[in-house]
Amino acid sequence: MSSRIERVSGRAIVLDGNDLDTDRIMPARFLKAITFDGLETHVFEDDRRALTANGGRHPFDDPARAGARILITGSNFGCGSSREHAPQALSRWGLQAIVAESFAEIFAGNSLMIGLVCASVSAADLERLRAAATDPTREFSLDVAGLRVTGGDVGAAVRIPDATRAALLSGAWDTTGLLLDDVAAIDRTAAVLPYVRGF
Amino acid sequence: MAQTLFEKVWDRHAVRKLPNGQTQLYIGLHLVHEVTSPQAFEALRVRGWRVHAPRRTFATLDHIMPTRFERRPFADPMAETMASALEKNCREHGIPLFDPSTGDQGIVHVIGPELGLTQPGMTIACGDSHTSTHGAFGALAFGIGTSQVRDVLASQTLAMSPLNVRRVDVRGRLGTGVYAKDLILAIIGRLGIHGGTGFAYEYAGETIERLSMEERMTLCNMSIEGGARIGYVNPDRTTFEYLRGRRFAPGSDGDAAAFARACAWWQDLASDPDASWADRVQLEAAEIAPMVTWGINPGQSVGVDSRVPHAAEAAGLAEALEFMGFTGGQAIAGTPIDVAFVGSCTNGRLSDLREAARIVAGQKVSPRVRALVVPGSQAVAAAAEREGLDEVFRQAGFDWRTAGCSMCLAMNADRLQGREICASTSNRNFKGRQGSPTGRTLLMSPAMVAAAAIAGEVVDVRTWVRETDVVAN
Fold this sequence. Notes:
- The structure holds 2 protein chains of 2 kinds.
- By secondary structure, chain A is of the alpha/beta class.
- Chain A is built from 9 helices and 7 strands.
- Chain B folds into 3 domains: 156 residues, Aconitase, domain 3 (2-Layer Sandwich); 89 residues, Aconitase, Domain 2; 180 residues, Aconitase, domain 3.
- By secondary structure, chain B is of the alpha/beta class.
- In chain B, the strands form 5 sheets. Chain B has a 5-stranded parallel β-sheet with strand order 5-4-3-6-7. In chain B, strands 17-16-15-18-19 form a 5-stranded parallel β-sheet. A 4-stranded parallel β-sheet of chain B has the order 11-10-9-12.
- At the A-B interface, helix 2, helix 4, helix 6, helix 7 and helix 8 of A face strand 1, helix 2, helix 3, helix 5 and strand 8 of B.
């Protein structure tokens, strides 16, 4: 059984934009590996390089944001490829939660499997949280049980699907052990499927 | 009680309710490839677990495969490491591996169907988002991440929550020069790239019923680009005839009674006419033009006879226009291209190559264009070569390559350089997707890519095909 996740606290990092796909988060060339080790150094690598080349600075290159625990970003975060390398890289970078207007489904599922909390907020609340996070030293707190995120004097309700929330709170988000609790039930289900049994 | 196919298949695979309210769902077919599996096998090794159902698990090499013939070891040491790891893992756990020596190697979503592994009524999982392809058969097929690959290896099950079903009805006939690729791009354009979140898409209606299995695969393949993790078509006679006699299909040993029993079971799984769908939308096939993406996600597309939008029309468009180098309001036709890519799990099957070959036959690729055809599997390549399609492509100036994912995501040597712009039959036009961080992708049908390769720019393929040439419609 993995650890219970009831609350995530820490500083925030803000990333503007919607539909940030997993190719952006982790370009495919970094998938050429047989472990997830070191992925955190490549998170958003092409976006970071492009911004630096243009004289700008990506939030993930801002020293004031190093050590941030909560990412605040737009809608449909993590769309596209099912590569778990994307949430793995964000988690290994140090993030423990992502607060966004919405998430792509596979990304949210992959995040749960590694205990990275994905919480949705309304567009209006997202703007208030973004504003609160312009101060890089501000402490934020995401209460998984209470479904609320706060930062300074800004507080907002968050949505986490019931099953996801239950898994986080009980520590059952690392599922393999749970799935192996009743192997006989698995085999019973398979045995009556005609394509398993034989037509 | 009347049910959708989704509900029927889900119920038959539900093992038990989990404490958090999710369902433990049995997975009937687990497809494995080299990119998203090594960490999962390692997790099993660390915990001392075995693969629960190696006979329901099949592997191939696709993402990292070089598409110019290479002896082992591969020139790219990381590609070699990944291939070797998969070979070792499959050996240790007794999992069949369709490597190039078998003649069955290819993109996982091409070989599953062509070997008859993919069947109606199955639950199918693979560490790849385009697993939705297999929904063409009336299976519940969806992409998973590596931790879930570990779960399926260890238990042949997943912890899942059910999806709602949105029925997407398509009426009428697709026009000449308009294909399944154009249809799915139009659907995504209409419903949005996250419109499908929380839904399985059930594609239905007379247009869908008339599609071949390969066209249905193209359609279901890109469901995930609309946010729907699952897309499916109810099984029918077209499905059954496709499967008849395939190696892993029921009755392939000549047992006609077994095949008939399978067809009866499959037929029963189709959505009941009075089932209730959480949502229904309808499209008119005749209104769809050949589609071209102009932006940085698959929802940003227009008909080839249309203009790209202005930045002010919606949030986020400015970034896409700037990256692509387009000016709002300009016509998409006439956009010069540098590269033409025919292949991928979306459009790398025999019928796709035939449609492209029909356009390029007797023509020459524009001197400013680098063009390549990458068959989706060794079997597709062999069938195409038997028909002489390889020669048609070569004589036109295309490279004829060996099977793999290739320039869809550029994990091998096939990639864009700098800001090159590629007319591509693949499924994603995300920034950097084709291997160059500044490279640009225009998604379109194989016929449209073929025409663009010849013209050196985006052209309307409808002016290139005569009615009588088009058999698909």
